[in-house]
Give the backbone structure.
Amino acid sequence: MDFSVIQYEEMEILLNDLFTRYGYDFTEYSKASMQRRIQRLFIVDKFPSFAEFRHRLQNDPQYFRRFVEEITVNVTEMLRDPAFYRTLRTSILPILATYPFIRIWNAGCSTGEEVYSMAILLKEAGLLHKSLLYGTDINPLVIEKARKGIFPISQMQKYSENYIQSGGVKDFSSYYTANYHLAKFESSLMEKMIFSTHNLVSDFSFNEFQLILCRNVLIYFERELQSKVFNLFDYSLENFGYLALGSKESLRFSPIADRYRQIGKEKIWRKVHEAG
Amino acid sequence: MNIVTRPGLLRNLQIGFGLSLLILVISSVASYSSISNLLDSSALVDHTDSVIIELQREQAVLRNAESSQRGYLLTGDTTYLQPLIEARGRTLRLADSIRLMTADNPVQQHNCDTLRKTIIATIANLQDVADQKKTANIFSLIEQQHGREYMARVRQVLSNMQEEEHKLMIGRVEEKRHFSNYTPILILVAAGLSILITLFFYRRVHTDYQERTALYEELQQKEREISRRIDIIKEIADKISEGEYRTRVTDEQKDGLGGLSGSLNKMAESLEYSFGLLSDKEWLQAGIAHLNEIMVGEADMDALVSNVMSFLAGYTHSRVGAFYVMDFSRRALDLKGHYALSAGSRSSSVMTGEGLVGQVARDGKRIMVQDITQNEWVISFAAGDIRPRTIIAFPLFFERKVKGVIELGSLESYTERDLEFFGAIAENIGIAVNSIENHSKLQELLDETQAQTEELQAQHSEMENLNLELEAQAEKLQVSEEELKVQQEELQQTNQELEERSRSLEEKNQLILLRNLDIQKKVDELALATKYKSEFMANMSHELRTPLNSILLLSRLLSENTDDQLSGEQREYARVIQSSGQGLLELIDEILDLSRIESGKLQLEHTIVPLEEILTDMRMLFVPLAKDKGLELNFIMEEGVSLQLETDKARLLQILKNLLSNAFKFTPKGTITLRVAPSPNQANFIDFSVKDSGIGIPEDKHQLIFEAFQQADGSTRRKYGGTGLGLSISRELAKLLGGEISLLSIPGEGAEFRVSVPLFKMDPLPGKPTQAPLPESPYTDEGIAPKLTLTEIPPDIPDDRSGLTPADKSLLIVEDNPVFAKALLEFGRKKGYKVVVAVRGDAALSLAKAYRPRGILLDIQLPVKNGWEVMDELKKDPQTRHIPVHIVSSFEVRNESLRKGAIDFMSKPMAFGNMDTIFEKIEQVRNRSSKKVLIVEDNTRHAEALSYFLSTHDLRGEIAHTLAGSLTALLRKEVDCVILSREGQEQKTDLTLETIRQNKGLENIPIIVLTGKPISRGEEVRLRQYADSIVVKTAHSYQRVLDEVSLFLHLVDEGREKEPSNVFGKLGALDEVLRNKTVLVADDDVRNIFSLTKALETHKMKVLSAMDGKEALATVREETADVDIILMDMMMPELDGFETISRIRRDPKLKHIPIIAVTAKAMAGDRERCIQAGASDYISKPVDIDQLLSLLRIWLYEK
């Protein structure tokens, strides 16, 4: 009873193609999720057959770009899980304040909402001036969006609620300028942001951070790839740095788990031992 | 005129014929009536005649009846009666028909009635008479009479009636005749009138006809003219119908048409106008319809825009055009598409209100500019550019909001129709744009929803995975539980087996025990003998040493002659005394050693010893000697030899020293070589061979020389000196170390001693007692132990306690022998210590507490309290516990000392060289064991708070207020970690930091910089060169300081151990290429900068650093001549690597500098991108130092 248009075997072929042709390695992404995304693209773009789909992907780099853009899932919102941000505010930022420079890496930042959330928190803690926020994603399109800092106004009410629940006491709307149906975040928040594409699968650590946020990214990866990425994070974290994950993700069972200690109930871990 | 004549004629005719007809009718009617009158009167006559006939017939019937009666009466024959009988019916019938005929005359009717009655009566009478006759055959005459009367009466009535009828007939005829008399007159009159009228009207009609003919002629004339005009008109109409609306009546034609031409022209004009209007409307409608068709269902903005533009341009003959869509968020218009617009004249975005387009967007009104000469827009074609003459920009609306603006340019001007068209489509395109935007918004929402679903699903599966993992672990636990159970069972079984075995073993043990008791007895006897011997040896050596000590120290002091009181000769004596003493000491030591080795009491201390260290020690000892003797001394380390070995360094050194000094002794000239090589005979062995070109040893003496007190020749002792114990001891030591010594020699050509020792710790070679069954230290045994606590208290020795400050480096010496104590005091002072001397054990603790010395030298044999007691006191008191204690005693109590917590043990008397090691040991141990953190902080309260905080975590904080103080403290090397506050004196701090790091021995001390105010990134980079960590002061700083400190203190040892091997032997010829070259490292990753800087600096490179592209560019420009090569990270703030490289390449002065791109990305094609950007080569993170070095060599080789 399999109604799938693209079979697992076909998907494997496709992903291997892409790896050899473009160097993008999706083979260790979660199979079920990958299949659903590919399926969706296949239907949306109305391909008559798998062979055609494969041929197009192999021979049309432009279409491959679209493939990457569509295959990656970009769900994010500002101050998502307010309790998490409350913990950041109360427990993490005071420690980060002791560093002369704070480097924060938001891996898989999608359209950047979390980077802006972080910037707001830092600003309110008076730390933004000495912070650098790196936002990376595999998808160049969302990185472009993130750079602009413009989000639909329809979301702002929800964000405001999140903001208040996360312990914010200011007026959330003071951070953006509304214009028709869009809200543009103030440029002072953006000054300390660096956005770049970065492939967690193949690219290496590019700096050392006190805080790495990678929320709801690992759910799309298979276990081995997760371990690989955890090692990359581990290498990129300073001693006593923090690693924050999504609500359904866990550092447990990972190869680096024994070097980390969870902070409270939230999905935040602190690196307490150097790698042996 | 015609109109007048025609009715005249008609009227004449009507009147004429009408009158004639009237007269005819009148005369006819008259004729008719007179004829019919005539007819009537004849009918009346007939009628009257028939009535009279009827009446006569009646009369006749009655007569018949009468006659028949009479006949009967006369004859009596009844046949005569028949007519009578019939008469009755006939008469009545006749009477009735008369009555009918005279129905119109009442008089006659009355007569008829009377007649009837009379007839009935008559008939009845006749009948009666007849009946009477019949019956009575008589008849009455009366009756007969009556009958006659009745008959007469009937005759009377009938004649009355005839008369009456007759009279009536005459009257009627008379009346008719009266009328008929006028008829002929009437007819005559009518005929006459008719003739008159006809004549009159003929005349009238004739005249009319004449007139008509004339008119007709005239009409025909006119008709011909009209048909000619119609032709002309038809011609024009044809033309117009063929669409030539501009056709007009020509002048020539005008003549023909006269006034009509004006009307025709007017008509043509109005037709032209109407048709023009119609076709415009149609053009407009068609355009709109087509446009709608194009736009309908289009979901892609770009496609829409380009379709619309090309249609609009084609439809309105525009030559160039641009389509802007409003971006409400920025209040700007984005160029979404264009038509034939050359690249130079496009502006991709226009703010509202700016320029023509912007203005249109702001006002929502169309703007047209005509007859332009200068214009930014150009229409490009193969041969050049044209500028449009007219430009129009009009807004696109949706719900009254401006959605976008279309700008079009044409070489002609736009007509009203075009403008109307633009007006008409503005809304449509606006709607289309809006709907596409809406569509895309909708699509986005859909995508978002889908993505959210996806995320939920992914999260769900992640949870499932975690669950699975948990389950798997639970299963594993179960499995291992199972396994444990099984193992337990197995263990139980084994236990049982073991129990059985142990039972059998026990039995055997019983046997063995018995035998052992025998053996034990013998061993005890043997041990006692050995003990006595050892005791003797030890006591003797102790007794010998104590005086020797004084001799040595005092002779040394004498010979140094610091006061210049002795003559040269005396000093020479002193030296002789010293060297003799030294020789004596060596002899005693050797004897002791040998005895200890033989009794198996010598304990080996295996450590990892770097080979280089051994060679260095040998060099230091023998190179000056070789120079003195003019001998050549070579140290050769062969390839493949292990760089370190695990052995007892001191013992190995002792062997080598022996061999080398032997070699020196027996070699008057030539060379001595120490060669280290892997052992050819045994794996994991290393050979040290000492070869000389001396006198050599004959073969038969080879065995002999290893025996105690033997030399090759008895005479040699006299000639060369020496005890002859050296080689025996060496051989024994080599055996203890697990190796051996072999000799290769030919007399006269020198000798080669080879020591083979294992690389790793090994059990000593069998054949020797490995462990003496004796207690380790004979002195702990009661009874035999010498008296440790003395009663005799020597006088105090003047020392430095009076001028001692807490900051001073102080030393406490606890020694009862005044001579030795003084000697130690002198040495301590020379080493830079302020020395406090205690001559009695009980004073030690209080002095230690009062002066907090850096170290304590403790003797064991002491007055009042012996050394062990003092040691216990010191270690029990938390204030003194950390002070390193070095035991110096003439008793051999090394192990005991170490067990009690001393850092080391040194036996008396000692060589002066060993004094140094005592102090080194003290410093070293202090550094390692006491977790002392130096807090350099201006603000005392802060410092104390931090110190207190650290103390709660088992760290001792020492506070220094000034940097100068901190530096001296550091140089004393008593601090494990430094916390340096740079508050208020940043620059000074930074300088000090630098100087600290430049001090030898302080390169590795962890330094944490506490800073009160924010620092710049540049500062951070600079500080990080010297500081291991930087902490900004906040409420949470202490915790982090603690984290860092504990981390560093933990890591320090590892770090130190690793370090030498890093630097070791890496400098080769190729490094010449790198030496003194300047490399710029551009990277925003501080870790990278440091690791690279460190690695490159070991290769004597000069390293500059930059945190971002701009800084790199500035640095490279500033020091153009100096930068030889650049390492460029590709992902940096400000300017990224690609941009920086291309900027550098654009600078002609810089374009030849090799640049090596460093990137974290490992994707295919990254290398190409870097090379394309202008990088010379490429290396990916993590940077492999060896790979980097070879890359650097390649790129710097040419320079």
Summary: Chain B touches chain A through 57 residues (CB under 8 Å).
